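Hi L.,

You mentioned the student needs an example of a multi-chain input paired with its predicted structure. This one should do, with 430 residues in total across all chains.
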Amino acid sequence: MRKLYSYFRSSAAYRVRIALAFKGLDYQTVPVHLLRDGGEQHAPAYRDKNPAGLVPALEEAGQALTQSLAIIEYLEETYPLPALLPSDALDRARVRALAQTIACDIHPLNNLRVLAYLRDELALDQSQRDAWYRHWTEQGLAVVERLLADDARTGLCCHGDTPTMADCCLAPQMFNAQRFHCRLDHLPTVRRIYAHCTTLPAFQAAAPENQPDAE
Amino acid sequence: MRKLYSYFRSSAAYRVRIALAFKGLDYQTVPVHLLRDGGEQHAPAYRDKNPAGLVPALEEAGQALTQSLAIIEYLEETYPLPALLPSDALDRARVRALAQTIACDIHPLNNLRVLAYLRDELALDQSQRDAWYRHWTEQGLAVVERLLADDARTGLCCHGDTPTMADCCLAPQMFNAQRFHCRLDHLPTVRRIYAHCTTLPAFQAAAPENQPDAE
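Structure written out for the whole complex:
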């Protein structure tokens, strides 16, 4: 049985959970608690699977796959239907760019290890750390809003009316944005698409509160 | 003619330049000076092409493509040979994970806009900003080192003996690491592969010092 090393609130793990659920792929969740015992992701046994000490990792065909977007591309190539990428190359480029605007330009700046560095190495207080978090989230999602609002290919979802890799990234990022009380009023299209995604079974199955390790 | 909006020292633009050169694709460089006039990437005319205000953007088939890895995937799909991804799905997942370990876990933390925030919003001094830069680079490249050193699929390049998307990311990151005087002694495999890449014509053509906007 395929194993997903996951933490219920990890945004990157959440992306992969959506993809697995959307494609109807069974898996066993192996919880990796990011806060317990100094972070279970740093334990040597887990680092053997994922040297980065980050979740998720997907054990598949005897190998531990890492990096959420690389895992989703693998799932797309190996289990093509239902598809998470459109068929046209320019459309695929658009969907990947939307996904990477979140996965490269927003999420890495607000990851747990970065917030820990701000607190421990730079001695920033909670309000400075919150301002940092909101700055990158609000600015990055404004870019996503413009990419979505200005393009006729946007539908009920980020690209057309069915979920793609972009929605796999958008929903977890919006979950985080709400959790950290980010401003969202400048994001009508993003909010509309997120609201739609939350009605879909795959997104519900993947949601943090429905994970076995949810607190 | 295809246009690449580029800045000679931009690590993300450098990745795309390698891919274009490796595939033998002609393009016109449109320089976007990241430091002049408060940053030409913020000019409204450029933001119309790339709302993120980041380089690169590739104008192709009448569309402005953004996000370096999405652009490289597009080039790979549209101009498959010579290939920048292996043919096996698990191998492709490995190459993409290596690329994303750099593009998601290292580079976004050390981008110009982030360093500017550290300086302007958090009033960190030069030594604190340098420590930040080195921390994420040295730690991130140590992860890359382990992924490379522990895997028999590593060859002259990150995956086998010819360049892949992973090498397109590794070479610019190493260029940056040297420029910012990062520790590299813990990275024998990374250094060996980088040294090899710098001998290849595509990497030489794409190097910052060989760009029309080099200073």
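You could point out the following to them. The domain at 89-203 of chain A is CATH 1.20.1050.10 (Glutathione S-transferase Yfyf (Class Pi); Chain A, domain 2). Chain A has a mean pLDDT of 97.

Best wishes,
N.
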